[in-house]
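Researcher: We're teaching a course module on how sequence relates to structure. For the next exercise, students receive a sequence and then see the predicted structure as tokens, so they can try to spot secondary structure elements on their own. Here is the exercise chain.
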Amino acid sequence: MESIAGYVKKNTPAVKAALKMHHGVPESVESEEYKGHQITIRTKCTIEIDGQPLMGHFSVNSDGQAETHALPNYEFRTPMNLVKS
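Model: And here is the predicted structure for the students to work with:
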């Protein structure tokens, strides 16, 4: 038990720092060719809860529906519904 407690105490600062890491703004990309033109739409979105950025990967499709890797079998009507879940 003492070795586990020591390990946790020693590594707590590193874990807290890792939880605060931000890997950039998630980006959704939609692309298609139309009448000889290549159209690419890149949508970037940031979500904050109580002023803190929401961690994780999520995307919003062209219909405005949101999805996240954290809940792979779900699709939400809006990003707000995703966050509330």
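Model: If you want an answer key for the exercise: Residues 2-20 form the longest helix (19 residues). The chain has two helices and six strands.
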